[in-house]
Specification:
Layout (H helix, E strand, L loop, with lengths): L15 E4 L5 H8 L3 E3 L6 E3 L11 H18 L6 E13 L5 E4 L6 E8 L7 E4 L26 E4 L5 E6 L3 E4 L8 E14 L6 E2 L1
Antiparallel strand pairs: 1-9, 2-3, 3-4, 4-11, 5-10, 6-9, 6-11, 7-8, 7-10, 11-12
Length: about 210
Amino acid sequence: MDKQITIVPLFGIPVFNSMTENISEETKTFLKNVQFERMFSKNGWYSTDKYILNKPEAKPLYNMIMAELHLYIRDVLKVKDNVKFEMTNSWVVKHEPGDWGQAHIHTNCLLSGVYYLQTNEESGQLVFRKNTNYINLFPTAIDIEFDEFLLYNSRCWSFQPKNNQVFFFPSHLLHSIDENESDEDRYAIAFNFFPKGKLGEKEFELTI
């Protein structure tokens, strides 16, 4: 009789990704032609408007993102209906050839996401990195070698984004964007969310 083995992905960090419907050319044109400013780090551009999805021209994309968010928080995370997640801000990110995004987290939010408007196989991967304080297997001070990298033993995990793909993840999850090695600009829309509603019970109840 074969031995039965079960692996439980205990205390995993849930990263959601989904392919969405294509948005209109009018919406794409609007998002690509907003006013940009160079990032302080000098490795990319972002829109001067940090609430870009509030604009009427971006409403179809906003609605689609919120529909995907609903799947993430209700179907995947099983958050109760009395807690809503509102989009707090949103902006367009443009990476020209040679630009890249350093490892960072998002602050003043609990969930974050990114929608890829224009990308290709040479314009860089989205990389999630395990925080050194988060130990799911071995501590970073012990350097164990592996024959194969899996979700259980990896310190980072990469995705090759596609056009119209959306990602959601906890805002504390460290992530970076590889260098754009293609000959065209990469466009993405980043956004954050914060809960609104009744949290907790009795002496720990908080309404926000």
